[in-house]
Write a structure and sequence with these properties.
Layout: H1 2-10, H2 14-33, E1 39-43, E2 50-54, E3 57-59, H3 61-67, H4 70-94, E4 100-109, E5 112-116, E6 121-124, E7 140-151, E8 154-160, H5 164-174, H6 176-179, E9 183-191, E10 195-202, H7 209-214, H8 219-227, E11 232-237, H9 242-249, E12 257-261, E13 266-271, H10 276-280, H11 285-294, E14 297-302, H12 303-325
């Protein structure tokens, strides 16, 4: 009955509890008889009967009860239960890395928030909170588990609201087509608290993946934006063509022309003069996120600058031909 109760209350496997009790009884018996004595104690897993052997002689239940110090057995047992409880908690939360959890803020001190997840208190450090958001005690909060560690007899769970996994999980929760696998999230680039770009594609040509993510009158994306403290989210259509994908990723800026340099893995993007600041974004945010999303180095410039650069590079090629092939400028 005791083992059943511990198994239910602490979520610890019964075999671990039985092993712990046996180890505790052996430890206590050795303390009484001495370390050099051979002692075997087994508990019947079905009936709970305790069988003991001391130097080849069978111990009676009275011997076990009289000889073994209950306090020693209790201390060993408590330690075993704590270790097993810690391991069970660690396994439970280690499996949930990068998954979203909902908790209640217990305390908020020194910039870090302590969040109750039900059976454990997790930490949401200052550096993993969205810049500019204010958290209050007793407030519900959603975050992803980014780290799980064993610290002594406890388990330390670290939460994050800045990782891109939070955006991914919120999209899976708010947009059924993503949860069903009809729409796939191909890439995410994020600057927490400011802006995120999400690249999506659809396995069904009839499904408008950008429209499905935005929702009717923007209700789906609004729920995600509200959860992320007003962070702006751009939904970008994925393309296998890198140049087309970069054009999509530069949204809302319109690209006039694009030159791909495979060798340096970079692209020169030309935009209208009056759209240059929009293409770059505040503090270079738009071009930076588009670069992260696509994995290409992007250089944005005006159309006139792009033409000048093109002419300059053409002149270099002409000079090279004239020198290498020993021809005049017109032939080159």
């Amino acid at each position: 009955r005791i083992v059943d109760a511990i198994h239910r209350d602490k979520n610890i496997d019964k075999s671990i509890v039985f092993d712990g009790i046996e180890a505790a009884l052996i430890s206590a018996a050795r303390k009484h008889y001495g370390e050099d004595h051979e002692i075997i104690i087994e508990i019947n897993r079905e009936t709970g009967l305790i069988k003991g052997i001391h130097d080849g002689n069978v111990m009676t239940p009275e011997d076990i009860a009289e000889r073994i110090g209950a306090q020693t057995a209790k201390q060993v047992m408590i330690q075993k239960i704590r270790e097993a409880e810690r391991d069970a908690l660690y396994d439970e939360y280690d499996e949930q890395r990068d998954q979203m959890v909902t908790g209640v803020i217990q305390r908020y001190d020194g910039g870090a928030a302590t969040v109750s997840l039900g059976n454990i208190e997790a930490i949401l450090p200052r550096g993993e909170q969205i810049p500019g958001e204010t958290l209050h005690a007793n407030e519900r909060v959603r975050a992803v588990i980014c780290d799980v560690r064993k610290v002594g007899s406890r388990v330390k769970v670290i939460l994050s609201r800045t990782r891109h996994h939070l955006v991914l999980r919120l999209f899976e929760q708010e947009i059924p087509e993503i949860a069903d696998g009809v729409i796939q999230i191909k890439a995410i680039a994020r600057e927490p608290g400011y802006r995120t770009k999400v690249a999506v594609s659809s396995s069904d040509q009839r499904v408008d993946c950008v429209g499905a993510c935005v929702g009717v009158r923007g209700n789906r994306i609004k729920n995600i934006v509200d959860e992320l403290a007003g962070e702006r989210i751009d939904i970008v259509l994925w393309s296998d063509n890198p140049a087309q994908f970069v054009i999509n990723a530069m949204s809302p800026a319109e690209v006039q022309s694009i030159v791909v340099d495979e060798d340096s893995h970079s692209m020169d993007i030309a935009v209208a003069e009056d759209k240059l600041s929009q293409a770059i974004g505040r503090g270079g945010q738009n071009i930076r996120l588009a670069s992260q999303l696509s994995g290409w180095e992007l250089n944005v410039m005006t159309e006139s600058d792009a033409e000048a650069k093109s002419e300059s590079e053409a002149k270099k090629v002409v000079q090279t031909f004239m020198k290498q092939l020993d021809v005049d400028e017109d032939v080159a």
